[in-house]
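User: We ran a pulldown and think these components assemble together. Before we commit to crystallization trials, I'd like a predicted model of the whole complex to look at. Sequences follow.
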Amino acid sequence: MFTNSSMMMVLAVVLSAGFLMFAGRRAALVPGRLQGFAEMVYEFIAGLIRDNTGPEGMKYFPLIFSLFLFVFMGNFLGMMPFAFTFTSHIIVTLALALMVITTVIIVGISRHGFKFFTLFCPAGVPMMVLPILVPVEIISFLARPFSLAMRLFLNMMAGHMVLKIFAGFCIMLVSLGGILSATSIIPFAVKFAVTGFEFFVALLQAYIFTIFSCIYLRDAIYLHGHEEHH
Amino acid sequence: MTDDLDSLKTKLDAADHEADRVDIAHASESAVPSNSNMTSDAMRLAIDMVAAVVIGGLVGYFADQWLGTTPWFLLIFLILGVAAGFRNFYVFAGNLLRPTDKKD
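Assistant: Here's a predicted model for the assembly, 334 residues in total across the polymer chains.
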């Protein structure tokens, strides 16, 4: 079924792809304004991957870059009037997170083979503790996509709920009529401030989603860095 | 013109190479975003801890459904989930206390 959520997803993909193609249409050595901006986005994600996954992670740049743009566009388009924030649905964020963790598992197994599963068995632990520790590590690993998805979903949904609740207050106070209508300026001021904050959250959550994808990918590429880097 | 571009390219490549070297040297030290603040840390920790318990509970519940052993797997995996939650807390606290002296 093609819902408004799917429409916003298509729009996010079309807009981000269109922007990049339009910005890179001339591919000048000395970039123009638009190309400069596109290059800035590229550099930003490339730096993120180098810092959080390591130089090897640049192989997975296309995935991380698309992921960032998709989440970012989803969060930002959702701030436009009459738009729908598809990242405020847990099924969307969970699908994205499961895609990330599937990639992590595939990359880990293809790189390390069976040794990938030593990820669940920290080095230097006494044999006695392993029967408890290994399930704990596995559950902690399985919880990662869940917490990745929850974080984005909760932030987006909570933010938009606050916006809508305060908008509701405004309407209620106005409809009281008379002198009481004037008090609607208070929730309006709060809503005004929260809207600005929501733009910040939209960027921050896209950034955090990307960073955690990078960190999880790092575990798959360099096994056993994960105790320090979780 | 072409000569200019060629020499520029050589210079850019050299600079790139240098930058890459520096990046590799620092790559292992910045796994945790440096601009994370207390609120987002607390939020992250809360979600990480809850997520582990929820996943443990789900695994246990579905294992019980599958094997018809209600409630044993649910209980066991809930406890393991709580342990995993505290393990996340432990790792997180470790990162918080010594964010710089990490080694690979």
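The interface with chain B takes residues 29, 50-52, 54-55, 132, 135-137, 139-140, 142-144, 146-147, 150-151, 154, 204, 208, 211, 215, 218, 222, 225, 227-230 of chain A (CB under 8 Å). That may be worth checking against your pulldown data before setting up trials.

User: Thanks, that helps.
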